[in-house]
Amino acid sequence: MTSIQQDHIVFLVDTPLLENLPAWATDNFTVTPGGYHDGQPSRNKLVIFADGSYLEFFNWYDTPPSLDDENFPMRFWGPKPPGLVDFAITDTGHSAEDSVQAVNDRLTEGPDGDADLGIKFGKPIAGSRKKADGVEIKWKVTRPEFSKGAKTPDPELFANGRIDVPFFCHDVTPRTDRVPYHDKKKTTHPCGAIGIAACEILVPKHLLTEYVHVYCKILGSKAEPTADQNSYVLDVGVPEGSVRSTVVVRAAETEQDRKRLQERGIGFSDLVIAIKTNGSGGEARRQLGTTGIESTIWLETAKRE
Fold first, then answer.
1. Which Gene3D superfamilies does this UniProt record tie to the protein (predicted)?
2. CA 239 from centre of chain
3. What are the distances in angstroms from CA 33 to CA 62, 73, 180?
């Protein structure tokens, strides 16, 4: 099993939504206050799961930092429209520096390297925020650094900036300060959510093999094809518990898929959240809604190892 684990999911939201979360969020999840980030005009609210991962409702309450300011790794979300925008992975058994170095080594080794997509990871950057109770929590973020490779897709497939692979978030202060996943009041949700089942990545059909290759290198995991050969499933760890979590790299096949690529770019397209079974024999998977952010979120009966 890979040492890489799910960390959190990022939903970029506007100020009215953050300050008055819609029913699809509050009816299904227990929302925990987040806080304000140090040095930049952003804040968040969280949905914390028992597997140690979480959802982040991230909001710019003023002008985002410049894309040229390398001290602010979240700056790449500035040009993006609201929605499911990014996700973070972590490695609780290694330092940020050691973990990212191992990934970069994998991305440069062998004849295939990074599949000519132009992907590596930069140096860890310190981040922090103060919680509502005044406690300061600290972490290190490592974002991908992109270059023009022989198979890098055309810019029009990176709508409002390139975010086609995840970033890393490593804790400096104790993880339970940032993610209080042992607090059952925070991790008990009306919909029965217990963790992240899958992050689905939508890519051009002609580059499916290359993106699967890169995700294998980043996650340190093997890929298994689905029956229709349209997507590949990679296991990824979770900080706590035995719920299976995966990353699914999927080729754009339908007109809706291709429209999605044009509007939002290659990358994270759908989130599947694991829910505990109630034994009723109901739907194994259901969509939270048909429009907006909720249309990218699915609830699925949990699969255990």
1. 2,3-Dihydroxybiphenyl 1,2-Dioxygenase, domain 1
2. 14
3. 19, 22, 12
CA–CA separation, 45 and 26 (whole Å): 12
Collect contacts of 21-25 with beta carbons under 8 A, ≥24 apart.
Answer: 21/45, 21/57, 22/294, 24/288, 24/289, 24/294, 25/57
| pTM of the complete model | 0.94
DSSP structure string for 27-92 = TT---EEEEEETTSSEEEEEEE-TTS-EEEEEEESSPPPPTT-TT-GGGGGTTSPSEEEEEEEE-T
Angle between helices 96-108 and 208-219 (to 10 degrees): 140
What are the backbone angles phi and psi of residue 294, rounded to the nearest 5°? Answer: -65, -20
> Which tens digit of pLDDT belongs to each residue from 145-183?
999 999 999 999 999 999 999 999 999 999 999 999 999
Is residue 24 helix, strand or coil?
Answer: helix
Rounded CA gap, 128 and 72, in Å? 11
User: 137: helix, coil or strand?
Assistant: strand
